Amino acid sequence: MTELDDRQVEERLLEALSRLIFRDKCLLINDHNERSITFRLGLYLQKEFRAFSVDCEYNRIGTDKKFLDELQHRLHPCCQNYRLGRKTPKNFRIFPDVIVHTRGRAGPNLLAIELKKTNNRSGCHKCDIEKLKAYLVHPALKYGHAAFVELVTKSPTPRVKSVTWLCHQA
Fold first, then answer.
1. Does residue 1 fall inside a structural domain?
2. Which of 63, 83, 148, 154 allows an S-S link to 164, with CB 3.0 to 4.6 Å?
3. Within a domain: residue 114?
4. What is the Cα gyration radius of the chain?
5. d(Cα 122, Cα 135) in Å, to the nearest integer?
6. Domain with 63 in it
7. Running DSSP on this structure, what letter comes out for residue 67?
8. DSSP letters of 87-102?
9. DSSP E strands, the chain
């Protein structure tokens, strides 16, 4: 498997986002569902990361369901009504919007992406940021890269508002 540095991963994500804006502008202008948008982004990411699998809303580590037990301790107050999946007594089930990885327990897990539209009603992105931070450090996940993407939708000129990269904490 080819190792990719930060710059290569960033360039490939930005290329996939450019394709999304150009080819699927109608989804963004008409404010279609986030899942529809992330699916299309996943198709463009697959072209950029041919040696990996790209999945949307993927909730497995091997055959086991993906949980982040430590996430519940870091939830921001605005996350109380945020849909993190079903809450079990100790864990939160998680469904990253898009991931670039090698399926199976051994991985590697290259990139986790959480995507939001600018007109998202929750207005709080702290939950997504906390999930992304956890994807980087969770011993069973260990993603190499994590990005929070915000897209301008419901506008005649849809675009990427921001891409926030999260880094491993030393």
1. no
2. 148
3. yes
4. 15
5. 22
6. 6-166
7. B
8. BPSS-BB---SEEEE-
9. 53-56, 60-61, 64-65, 98-101, 109-117, 145-152, 159-166
Exposure b/e, 54-69, CB count within 10 A at least 16 = b: bbbebeebeeeebbbe
Instruction: Tell whether 15 is covered by a domain.
Output: yes
Write the CATH number for 92. 3.90.1570
Report pLDDT for 137: 84
Residue 158 covered by a domain: yes
Cβ-count burial 154-166 (b if 16+ within 10 Å, e if not): eeeebeeeebeeb
**How far is the C-alpha of 82 from the C-alpha of 84, rounded, in Å?**
6
